[in-house]
Structures are given as structure tokens and as C-alpha cells.
Amino acid sequence: MEILDGFSFKEVVTSFMVLFAVIDIIGSVPIIVSLQQKFGQIEAGRAALTAGAIMIVFLFVGNKILKLIGVDVNSFAIAGAFVIFVIALEMILGIEINKTTEAKAASIVPIAFPLVAGAGTLTTALSLRAEFHDINIILGIVLNTIFVYLVLKSAKWLERKIGDATLMILQKVFGIILLAISIKLFTANFAQLVQNYINF
């Protein structure tokens, strides 16, 4: 098959590692456990498959979709930064902004998007396509999807092992980290957006 012609084990590993670092599902464990406590059982398969599908679809049609609706990548990333900002505030302040009460809904938003397949992940996938063959990026996404599923599936076990006191501390710490990521994502893309308009 023509699509397999560009297969490279090195590119698969590199794609996996780059996306793994951006997704940071291990670092998101306190967030996942917090959402599970809030919504009940999270549908791991639904969340992982949705996130994987979003990443693969966006890999091929991301730029076209954004151009079609008149949105650039930087604006898209800024929107994702706002969503991450809200999640971080919930974790740090212990307030409830997202009023969704269904676990199914939580599996899609905010877990599948933007926690896993967020603006950073999607824009990273697009940037990888400029350097690597599609098949290798797809395999990297599939491997990450499997890993995300395993982590989500183990959330109950992780919750028991972590403990309430430790979990509360971790939620605050990771909430601050998440807040910092959202601010960094916002400032970097806002600066690029301003620069684009000035050059225009």
C-alpha cells in the first residue's frame, strides 16, 4: 500500500514521544480523578476514541476547516487556552463553573477535548505533518490513544492509591501548572496573532 511506503520506526517513536509530552496524560491524572469524582464513572473508551479521532481528522483537515470558518491556528489555540484556564480555576479554587452532570458529556468535554486533544496537541500534529510521513504520525496518535485509554481506565485504582489528602494537594499543584500552561498558550499565540496583523 502506498500509505505504508513512508513507514519509519524512528518517525513513529518520535511522533509518539512529541505528542505524549504535549498531551501529558500522566500529569493530568489529578485532573482526571477530580473529574471522575465530580461526574462519576468516566467512559475511558469513549474519551480515548474521541480524542484519537479528533487528532487524526484534524491532522488531515485541520487547516482547511479553520480556513473555511475563517479562524487561524493562533485563534484556535487561544480558545483552547480559555477552556484550560477555566478547568485550572476549578481545581485551584474548588469552585464549579462547568455545570454538566453527565459522565458521557464529561468524557467528551473536557477530557477528550481539550484535555487530550487540545489546541496544543492539534497544532503539534499539524506541525509534525510538515516533517514526517502521515502513516508515522497516525501510528504515534494511535499509540498515545491506547496509553490514554489505559490511564483513564485505571483512574479508580489511581484514586484509591493516591488518597484524598494527597489528591487535594496534587489538584492544587497541577491546577496551578495547568493555569500556567493556559497563560503561556494564550500569550504565545496572542503575540503571534498581533504580529500577523501588524505584518498584514
TrEMBL record:
<keyword id="KW-1003">Cell membrane</keyword>
<feature type="transmembrane region" description="Helical">
    <location>
        <begin position="47"/>
        <end position="69"/>
    </location>
</feature>
<feature type="transmembrane region" description="Helical">
    <location>
        <begin position="107"/>
        <end position="129"/>
    </location>
</feature>
<dbReference type="InterPro" id="IPR002771">
    <property type="entry name" value="Multi_antbiot-R_MarC"/>
</dbReference>
<keyword id="KW-0472">Membrane</keyword>
<feature type="transmembrane region" description="Helical">
    <location>
        <begin position="135"/>
        <end position="152"/>
    </location>
</feature>
<dbReference type="Pfam" id="PF01914">
    <property type="entry name" value="MarC"/>
</dbReference>
<feature type="transmembrane region" description="Helical">
    <location>
        <begin position="12"/>
        <end position="35"/>
    </location>
</feature>
<feature type="transmembrane region" description="Helical">
    <location>
        <begin position="75"/>
        <end position="95"/>
    </location>
</feature>
<dbReference type="GO" id="GO:0005886">
    <property type="term" value="C:plasma membrane"/>
</dbReference>
<keyword id="KW-1133">Transmembrane helix</keyword>
<feature type="transmembrane region" description="Helical">
    <location>
        <begin position="173"/>
        <end position="194"/>
    </location>
</feature>
<protein>
    <recommendedName>
        <fullName>UPF0056 membrane protein</fullName>
    </recommendedName>
</protein>
<comment type="similarity">
    <text>Belongs to the UPF0056 (MarC) family.</text>
</comment>
<keyword id="KW-0812">Transmembrane</keyword>
